[in-house]
């Protein structure tokens, strides 16, 4: 029996409160709200928000809200080493190093003291002998002979190293005083961290975050398609390449493929860079190059199930290039589609044909002369590139900044410049449209590529030479069976 959609399970409600805290706290906890910029030459500037190390990662979880507007699950979180960037973790690592240094210093002092003490013990009979002779000569100076004096000088020479041993003892006392002060400082810092953490053990907090991430995964797996209601602030992953370009991960669901692809420029390009992981992409390392047999046009490319789908330069031909075999599997003309800047987005750049993917499959966004320049949406068969079904949205393509598909709905922005917002939505399931007002921060003021990735539930954008991610909030109807 279906329960009214306003009713949310107690578990999700509890998780909502926790994840609401996470969405506010975790970004600052792991350093998401600040970027680190480092230069590596003129053309490779890496901007890393949450991906500074080779062993760290991030995942963007889509936000879901119930009909009452309550958060169900949302977070932008690192995938591994969750607390590695926590300032307290850095303090603990520093304290560990200091403790190790103090421990090593104490071992050195102990070893040296033991060695010197043994030397003193070995010298004790000689020292007692010299002391006895001196007392005898002081009590009766007449007993001092030339031979006896010579023997006394020899014994004194043997005892001379004791002076350096005594000096070392003095220095060791100073070292011990320093170590005592360091231990006092470490104790104060540890006390402060303990008070800051409060009743929770630090490792316990890490385990709780891991548990929360597992619950978030579970929550996201239960959520189906939804309607876009908000776009988050931008997450700058990297700055590289020219003003125009595209970057993407495989949009096939499900897929464990973690590769990232980058295609710089929009005109006659053929060079595709394939990075092993997102971490490698942010660093600009561990990549291979694919040289396409046919150049591309625009930036509306998509990777779907291991293949790159793109628009062939100066044509309306769609090309399927398979990465692992490094070969073209398929070419097919998109009948009637304009090309070569006949019907581009507002920013131009031969963006006549925009290929994209969402939860429901592969799509082409374009227009034709009979359509008078209005946006056409066609669902494609990825195996044959045949058009399965088409819709005329009625929205003029030259007035659109960019477009993307989520759950079978086309979303269109009103500009590629600063102040842009998601202005129009066309629902293919009902062949209806609506005007929307969903703002987002166009941080670098010139977007030349904007695509939704259903695996990550995030928007990938190329913004004036910066590769930027946006989290999305989807309105979900959550039902349960009674």
Question: Could you explain the architecture of this structure?
Answer:
Helix content is 32%, strand content 34%. With 482 residues, the protein is an alpha+beta fold. It has 2 domains: 94-190; 226-475, Neuraminidase (6 Propeller), CATH 2.120.10. Mean pLDDT is 78; it is low at 1-59 and 78-85.
Count of DSSP strands: 24
From the alpha-carbon coordinates, what is the Rg to the nearest angstrom? 35 Å
Strand share of the residues? 25-35%
End-to-end separation: 5 Å
Average pLDDT number: 78
Uncertain ranges: 1-59, 78-85
**Which structural category do the helix and sheet elements fall into?**
alpha+beta
CATH architecture of the largest domain: 6 Propeller
Largest sheet: 8 strands, mixed
Query: What is the CATH domain class of the largest domain?
Result: Mainly Beta
CATH topology of the largest domain: Neuraminidase
Q: How much helicity do the residues have?
A: 25-40%
Q: What's the helix count?
A: 6
Number of domains: 2
The shape is: elongated
Q: Give the SSE string.
A: HEEEEHHHHEEEEHEEEEEEEEEEEEEEEE
Domain Olfactomedin-like: 224-476
Protein name: Olfactomedin 2
InterPro entries: Noelin_dom, Olfac-like_dom, Olfactomedin-like_domain
Disulfide bonds: 225-407
What is this structure, in a nutshell?
Helix content is 32%, strand content 34%. It is an alpha+beta fold and 482 residues long. The protein has two domains: 94-190; 226-475, Neuraminidase.
List the SSEs and their pairings.
Elements: H1 10-30, E1 36-39, E2 44-48, E3 59-65, E4 71-77, H2 87-139, H3 146-159, H4 161-197, H5 202-222, E5 227-240, E6 245-249, E7 260-264, E8 267-275, H6 278-283, E9 287-297, E10 302-304, E11 307-311, E12 317-322, E13 327-333, E14 354-358, E15 361-366, E16 374-380, E17 387-396, E18 403-406, E19 409-413, E20 421-427, E21 432-439, E22 447-453, E23 458-463, E24 466-475
Parallel strand pairs: 3-24
Antiparallel strand pairs: 1-2, 2-5, 3-4, 5-24, 6-7, 7-8, 8-9, 10-11, 11-12, 12-13, 14-15, 15-16, 16-17, 18-19, 19-20, 20-21, 22-23, 23-24
């Amino acid at each position: 029996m279906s329960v009214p959609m306003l009713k949310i399970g107690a578990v999700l409600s509890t998780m909502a409160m926790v994840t609401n805290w996470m969405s506010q706290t975790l970004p600052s906890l792991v350093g998401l709200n600040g970027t680190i910029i480092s230069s590596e030459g003129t053309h490779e500037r890496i901007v890393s928000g949450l991906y500074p190390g080779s062993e760290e990662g991030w995942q963007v979880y889509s936000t879901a809200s119930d009909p009452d507007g309550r958060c169900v699950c949302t977070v932008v979180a690192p995938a591994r080493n969750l607390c590695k960037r926590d300032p307290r973790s850095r303090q603990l690592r520093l304290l560990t190093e200091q403790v190790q240094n103090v421990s090593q210093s104490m071992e050195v002092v102990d070893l040296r003291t033991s060695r010197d003490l043994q030397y003193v013990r070995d010298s004790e009979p000689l020292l007692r002998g010299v002391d006895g002779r001196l007392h005898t000569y002081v009590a009766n100076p007449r007993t001092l002979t030339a031979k006896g004096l010579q023997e006394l000088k020899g014994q004194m020479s043997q005892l001379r190293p004791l002076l350096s041993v005594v000096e070392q003892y003095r220095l060791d006392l100073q070292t011990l005083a320093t170590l005592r002060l360091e231990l006092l400082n470490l104790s104060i810092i540890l006390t402060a961290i303990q008070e800051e953490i409060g009743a929770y053990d630090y490792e316990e907090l890490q385990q709780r975050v891991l548990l929360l991430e597992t619950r978030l995964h579970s929550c996201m797996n239960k959520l189906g398609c939804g309607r876009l209601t908000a776009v988050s602030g931008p997450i700058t992953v990297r700055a590289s390449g020219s003003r125009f370009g595209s970057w993407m991960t495989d949009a096939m669901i499900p897929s464990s493929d973690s590769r990232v692809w980058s295609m710089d420029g929009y005109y006659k390009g053929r060079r595709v860079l394939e990075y092993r992981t997102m971490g490698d992409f942010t660093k600009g390392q561990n990549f291979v190059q694919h040289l396409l047999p046919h150049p591309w046009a625009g930036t509306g490319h998509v990777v779907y199930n291991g293949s790159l789908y793109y628009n062939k330069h100066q044509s309306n031909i769609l090309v399927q290039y398979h990465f692992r075999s490094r070969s073209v599997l398929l070419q097919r003309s998109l009948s009637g589609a304009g090309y070569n800047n006949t019907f581009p987005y507002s920013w131009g750049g031969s963006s006549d044909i925009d290929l994209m993917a969402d939860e429901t499959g592969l799509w082409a966004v374009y227009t034709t002369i009979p359509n008078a320049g209005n946006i056409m949406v066609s669902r494609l068969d990825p195996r044959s590139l045949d058009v399965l079904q088409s819709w005329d949205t009625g929205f003029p393509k030259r007035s659109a900044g960019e477009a993307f598909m989520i759950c079978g709905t086309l979303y269109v922005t009103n500009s590629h410049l600063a102040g842009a917002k998601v202005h129009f939505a066309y629902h293919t399931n009902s062949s209806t449209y609506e005007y929307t007002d969903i703002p987002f921060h166009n941080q670098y003021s010139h977007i030349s590529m904007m695509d939704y990735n259903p695996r990550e539930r995030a928007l990938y954008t190329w913004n004036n030479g910066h590769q930027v991610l946006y989290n999305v909030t989807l309105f979900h109807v959550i039902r349960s069976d009674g």
